[in-house]
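User: Fold this, then the next.

Assistant: Folding the first:
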Amino acid sequence: MKRKVIIYSLLFLLIPLYAYSQEIKWISLEDAVYLQESSPRNIIIDAYTNWCGPCKLLDRNTFSNKDVINYINENFYAVKFNAEGNDVIKFKGYTFKNPNYDPAKANRRNSSHELSQAFRVNAFPTILFLDKSSNLLYRLRGYQTPKQLEVYLKLFNGNNDDIYQDQEALNSFFENFNYEFE
């Protein structure tokens, strides 16, 4: 009887841990930049809006894919950023706000956040890739399936800096890419 109680107790404790591990570990941009200081990784930013249908599809279909989740959690600091939200964000010595934010429009089109403007985000969703020094590498606009996103995740994972510096190497990367995500 005690053995059953112990087993059920362990299962009760481990199931939430398993479920949690099946999600992307989203953090703030400030935390991602801070973590880069001691453990350098590239940053991936999901720039979304509350009203954006393709943004919701990206969350439901792509950012919930186990291959995408595992790859992002292992290789990136992941940031969710509401491009029309009201957060105050400190980044690279600047403070970014949304001075024209209207709380009555929280789930509709709202004013653009200053950080959106700084990154030149004008379509949603946009996935931003930043290097280990928090410099913008690439803006990926629009909805991406797990397979479509896989190419960019593996290109901008921080291990291929030499590839996207050279057009010939970049062409070869895309031509010879082997998809692994389901």
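Now the next one, as you asked:
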Amino acid sequence: MQEIYINLDDSGKLTKKELLSVYGGIVFLSKKEKDKFITQYRSIINDIKCKYCKNKSTCNKKCPEIKNSNIKNSDKRRIMNYIKKYFVVGLIINNQNVYDHIIENKAAKGRFIDYSLRRMIKEIINNQISNHNISENRPLKVVVNIDEQTTKSNGYYNLHDGLVEELKYGISNFNYACIYNPIVFNDLDIKISYQDSGKSYLVQAADLISGTIRRGALNALTNNENINYALDNFINYKIILPWKKAT
């Protein structure tokens, strides 16, 4: 069975008070590749984490989690240079283009985020099919690792069943009268794992990625640059939603 591991975290919230909300992550096409990444990533973190301990007497016993919000630029560059050796993905939501009635309603906002994630994951898999890294006619196992705090704050509905429908049966667009065709034509096994970022190097890496994507996208907007061009040297595959401004 073919495998794909998609590891995600968010940066920013879906609110009109913020310009962008972002999901970023890293993709592996085998358990071997995933485990190799974790081994090296852990080594880098273990090499730098003690400098962030406030109480040196407890150093190495309860070092703080390395996050996008607390890491020095020099250490972040070191980690990101390693991360960029793998397949980096991003979902950028232009909050200003999302309908007000979606943002103002908690349930509608949760459904929109759920929809956006399903679209992102489907497009990542479709990209791998197009590049002949995955065959649509062979059995496929999809493992999605995502920060559990992200799900609590945004209230996803049923990401598992939605992905099965997206990938194997096709689905209607959330906002527009469009039908998207299925892309997987054999057995499909989907596992959604909601993880504690303090215990998951995969989610920690996704946190650094999402924060880097959001900062780069915001800088592009500030400098009146094209977001696509600004992030091309970092992201291997990205999707921007909504496709057009809400009216």
